[in-house]
Amino acid sequence: DTEVTQTPKHLVMGMTNKKSLKCEQHMGHRAMYWYKQKAKKPPELMFVYSYEKLSINESVPSRFSPECPNSSLLNLHLHALQPEDSALYLCASSQTGTGNYEQYFGPGTRLTVT
Amino acid sequence: EDKVVQSPLSLVVHEGDTVTLNCSYEVTNFRSLLWYKQEKKAPTFLFMLTSSGIEKKSGRLSSILDKKELFSILNITATQTGDSAVYLCVLAGGTSYGKLTFGQGTILTVHP
User: Fold this and answer.
1) How far is A17 from chain B, CA to nearest CA, in Å?
2) Which SS3 state, helix, strand or coil, does residue A85 take?
3) Which of A13, A101, B24, B89 could disulfide-pair with B103, CB 3.0 to 4.6 Å?
4) Is cis: bond before A43, omega within 30 of 0?
5) CB contact B56 to A (< 8 Å)
6) Are A89 and A73 in contact, with CB atoms under 8 Å apart?
7) How close does chain A come to B100, measured CA to CA in Å?
């Protein structure tokens, strides 16, 4: 299984809502990532988890809260978002260790904040 | 700060043409350079280049890295409409493992 899955595919939420994005992989990867991608721009890294521990937080606002409950799952909890947070949210995973730089991306969740 | 610059930013060709996409970079601690193809959704991996001068090939696509001049190229021969996509040059470097630096991408459009 070389697939990263993400749910939901699309999400529309109001600025006062609380929602979660989910990501799952069964490739045995121990590094997982959240990216945000705006239209016609490359992905921007948000968070990196390595062995279920947060290793990189790219100064992301606290209205985004990541969680890695186990080595296969990655969640992104959303609360009090702003319209400018509307974007494609991509999850990725990779092996760890020297030489393992290839990241496998999921199909993304298209988020619209109204 | 690591930096990746791709050129051209967009390219329109006809089926059967050969294209060359360019990527130049600046990096403090080079680990690898990767190429991804992004259509509607997830970027899909094409190549990972670590050593200079060694060409990687996959079908009609090939790529090579020059670590002395700090650039890479991605070649696509006999282009097809299915090659239409954004091609991302991505740098693995710096001091934080797992952090990739993305170029702005080259939008390739292949007309029938």
Assistant:
1) 25
2) helix
3) B89
4) no
5) no
6) no
7) 8
Three-state SS for A1-42 is CCCEEEECCEEEECCCCEEEEEEEECCCCCEEEEEEECCCCC
Partners of residue B48 in chain A, C-beta under 8 Å:
101-102
Which are the contacts of A110, defined by CB distance < 8 A and separation ≥ 6?
Answer: A9, A10, A11, A88
pLDDT tens digits for range B58-99: 999 999 999 999 999 999 999 999 999 999 999 998 777 778
Cβ–Cβ below 8 Å for A42 and B103: yes
Our CA angle for A16, A38, B72, nearest 5°, is 150
Q: Would the CB atoms of B99 and A104 count as touching at under 8 Å?
A: no
Which residue in A55, A103, A108 is closest to B41 by CB distance? Answer: A108
| Averaged pLDDT for residues B12-30 | 95
Q: What is the pLDDT of residue B28?
A: 85
A66 touches chain B (CB under 8 A): no
Tally A–B CB contacts below 8 A. 54
Tens of pLDDT, residue by residue over A31-48, are 999 999 999 899 999 999
